[in-house]
Amino acid sequence: MKNRIGIVGGGQLGRMMAFDAKKLGFTVTVIDPTPNSPTGQVVDRQIVADFYDKKAIRELGKISDFLTSEIEFSDSKILDELSQKGVQIHPSAKTFGTINDKLEQKKFLRKAGLPVADFIEVETKDDIQNAAKNFGYPLLLKARFDAYDGRGNALIKNKSQIDIGLNKLRRKKLYVEKFVSFTKELAAVVARSTKGEIVSYPVVETIHKNNICHIVIAPAPVDKKVTNKAKRLAIKTMQHLKGAGVFGIEMFLTKNGKVLINEIAPRVHNSGHFTIEGCRTSQFEQHIRAVTGLPLGSIEMTAPSAVMINILGERQSPAQVKGLEKILKMPNVFVHIYGKAETKNERKMGHITVLGKTVKEAYNKAIKARKLLMI
Ligand code: AMP
């Protein structure tokens, strides 16, 4: 039986994927440059190496039947080489290729007839000024590559801020996007199996602070029509994208009820952490099922509502968890600590999920629980 999984990236996403892979009897090896990484702590073996270390990736390929990733990895040459040797790789180099370049991703979405904010490739200050003539200010200047948690974005409110934006993202390949004055941000985690079966988890609202996901509310407290629209768009995205595995689809809800796609993440997603306790099959188990050719599981919620709050670091020091005793006395509250040795400002150190009869009940309890915990 093929039961060996290799994961590229040893952070919290790999760790939570590994818990479910182990539950289903797989052996797991992870590759990550940090010894004893969050995933390394819970798997059979960690190869300590950089993600782009060809020798190490080949070694991982040799001892894996299935290869997947928790990061946006796309050394397409080495992935092609391994897939020719019989390793099943999901998402594929082609899928990563479409997603990794945010400009190509936007072009792909537009070509598929999916609604996105207006955008255009830019190189110079003149290009940005020309774009502003069409789109108006404010504008979002965005890096095409290696941009996550808003790190590759610069908001340009008027002409005088163009230089500041260019300076912030200097030497990067760029594009600009029309500013969307959204009322809420929504997201849907979608899974596609190797056989083409697609399921979408309930659409959630995501609340960001400083461009980092802070709170996730499931189901999103919006009109059912909006949820249905968002779900349809997420499924349509996957029908066009074709890759196997779990994907996060981030969306904007505008004042006049339009839903636009902001971004696709080719991996398990922060907006889906609530599924561990909040749905019959967690997004992590779903991903393992999807990439190993197993049938997908039920995405039904286990409670009327679930609220997830991230535990973000608030200082720089060795990590030490305080307050667990109090939180663990609270019913329907679930704590996840990622095992990172060092706390840093805004670093994702863990998360708390609360299940409740109503969104309000779960939300208030999540805020209360978060205040009890220090890390
Ligand atoms: P991104 O990394 O591009 O998904 O952007 C991070 C965050 O920036 C999003 O979650 C939004 O809060 C905000 N953002 C991104 N693009 C836009 C846009 N076109 N208009 C308004 N806000 C945006």
Short description:
The protein is α+β, with helices and mostly antiparallel strands. It contains twelve helices and 20 strands.
Question: Could you explain the architecture of this structure?
Answer:
This protein is of the alpha+beta class. 31% of the residues lie in helices and 29% in strands. It has 12 helices and 20 strands. Strands 10, 11, 12, 13, 14, 15, 16, 18 and 20 form a 9-stranded antiparallel β-sheet that branches. Strands 3-2-1-4-5 form a 5-stranded parallel β-sheet, with helices on both faces. The longest helix is centred in the middle third of the chain and has 18 residues, at 224-241. The protein binds adenosine monophosphate. Adenosine monophosphate binds next to strand 7 and strand 15.
Mean pLDDT figure: 95
Terminus-to-terminus distance: 42 Å
- Percent of residues in beta strands? 25-35%
Bound molecules: adenosine monophosphate
> What structural class do helix, strand and pairing data support?
alpha+beta
**H/I helix tally:** 12
Q: Could you give a short account of the major beta sheet?
A: 9 strands, antiparallel
Name the overall outline. globular
